[in-house]
Amino acid sequence: MTVLEVLQSTTGYLQKRNIDSPRLNAEHLLGHVLGRKRMELYLDFERRLRESELAPLRELVKRRGAGEPLQHLLGTVEFCGRSFRCDKRALVPRPETEQLVELLISHFKSEIAYSRMVDVGTGSGVIALTLAAEFPKAEIVGADISEDALMLASENAERLGLADRVGFLRSNLLESVQPGFDLIVANLPYVSTEERQNLSREVLHDPEVALFAGARWRWRSGSAKARRLWHCWRRKIIATFGPTRITRV
């Protein structure tokens, strides 16, 4: 089969399994197997693939068709212009979170530039590491209750050359965080466990502790979690991240 034929058949397979943007997914998966950028595939449509290339592609396509997130299959995710390692240890960063971080950078420059900041629920570290890269004078700590997530965040810090700029700490909310921080940024679970049946297959591959508000604090909704964080350090929080907005507090 040629590159073009593989793209067409893969797109059709994913489309039948109700995968959003099936052609884009097919291009990403084939590019990943061949070690090529997506657009480079268009320059090589007539190339015939070897069985040694088709075999791993078939496995990836099968997993994607079953609902496994594309980011897990690729092992990376783009966030604010940087490439982060991404796997089942932490929540897949959402495009909405990327937009919110961009707003945070543009709206809170003076507060962040020379601050000591803690990112609560850091997950894979995308927020803490992005802010560290954008604000070289800021001191930033990422806190999370999940050891697996913290390990992934540390790997991303090494990947981006920021290991000496961002520290990571295991903590349930702020319980293990020492006083002395100027600012708090929190992107915490806000989905109730009752909403599980309404979530996509891809989302359900995320760790429950990162996805459901009740999974971490035994509360039914993210609003209760936000109230607890607010009462902990109400004078230090500059913004909380919800599903579609930043709230300045």
3D architecture notes:
By secondary structure, the chain is an alpha/beta fold. It has two domains: 64 residues, Ubiquitin-associated (UBA) domain (Helicase, Ruva Protein, domain 3, Orthogonal Bundle), CATH 1.10.8.10; 160 residues, Vaccinia Virus protein VP39 (Rossmann fold). The protein is 44% helix and 14% strand. Strands 5-4-3-6-7-8 form a six-stranded mixed beta sheet, covered by helices on one side. It has a two-stranded antiparallel sheet with strand order 1-2. Helix 1 crosses helix 2. It is elongated, with a radius of gyration of 20 Å. The termini are far apart.
Under CATH, the homologous superfamily of the largest domain reads: Vaccinia Virus protein VP39
Counted by DSSP, the helix tally is 12
Work out the number of β strands: 8
CATH fold label of the largest domain: Rossmann fold
Structural category is alpha/beta
Distance between the termini: 57 Å
Could you tell me the mean pLDDT?
Answer: 87
What is the CA-based Rg, rounded? 20 Å
What is the CATH architecture descriptor of the largest domain? 3-Layer(aba) Sandwich
Main traits of this protein?
249 residues; alpha/beta; Helicase, Ruva Protein, domain 3; Rossmann fold; two-stranded antiparallel ribbon; 14% strand
In short:
With 249 residues, the chain is of the alpha/beta class.
Question: What is the fold's blueprint, element by element?
Answer:
Blueprint: H1 3-16, H2 22-34, H3 38-41, H4 51-65, H5 70-74, E1 76-79, E2 82-85, H6 95-107, H7 109-112, E3 116-120, H8 126-134, E4 139-144, H9 147-159, E5 166-170, E6 183-186, H10 208-211, H11 213-217, H12 222-232, E7 237-241, E8 246-248
Parallel strand pairs: 3-4, 3-6, 4-5, 6-7
Antiparallel strand pairs: 1-2, 7-8
